User: Fold Carbon monoxide dehydrogenase subunit G from Flavobacterium aciduliphilum.
Amino acid sequence: MNLESPKVTVEKSAAYLYTQLSDVKNYETLMPENIAKFEVLGEDIFNFGLKGMPEIKLRLKEGIPHTRINLAAASDKLPFTLVAQLESLSENTCAIKMDFEGEFNPMMAMMIKGPITKFLETLVSNMHKL
Assistant:
């Protein structure tokens, strides 16, 4: 299952956003208002839970400076990746979108498609808060 957020323009440089997204503590700022839990577990891993959803651990996997940040589920139960793609538009402006890719059975995919799509939209729309 592949989902993507809309592309959002942010009045920050791609270098700045890359640095911010490389620090797992900053993802708390991007989370939806219905966040029930956010906990940094290490330098490259955090745990979060939204009301009515199971908790998810995300690990910072890799980054390509100023263009891409890859996060992956730290558990094999729900294997997926979350990728932030940055595109520099000017010295102080960049576009960002988030892609979600996971292997789910059709029933699970149908259940999570709506909430995950809304989650991706919230993450990118909150980028200006960084």
Remarks:
- The chain has a mean pLDDT of 94.
- The chain has one domain: 2-129.
- The beta strands are 2-4, 8-10, 35-42, 45-50, 56-64, 68-73, 80-90, 93-102.
- Helices lie at 14-21, 27-30, 106-125.
